[in-house]
Amino acid sequence: MSTDTAAPVNWTEVYSTSTGDRGMDEISFAARDARYVRMYGTARGTSYGYSLDEFEVYGSAASSSDTDPGDMISNDAGIIF
């Protein structure tokens, strides 16, 4: 998660695992303020890459003026966040 107001640079890890089970995982942690949330994979389990069917984030909504993500950013691989 990141609280950066522009393009996110500073990330705080709230969960990590190296033992994916191909099942559904519900991950809970204490509420935190954040503007951006990401799933960052570091090692693929197969040659096909990562498989993420659904990614949900729950919490209280910010005021409408705080929810505009601004410009989309992309990385060298062409992935848009």
UniProtKB/TrEMBL annotation:
InterPro entries cross-referenced by the UniProt entry: FA58C (IPR000421), Galactose-bd-like_sf (IPR008979)
Protein name per its UniProtKB record: F5/8 type C domain-containing protein
PROSITE patterns in the cross-refs: FA58C_3
Species whose genome carries this gene: Paenibacillus lautus (Bacillus lautus)
Residue ranges annotated for the F5/8 type C domain, each copy included: 1-60
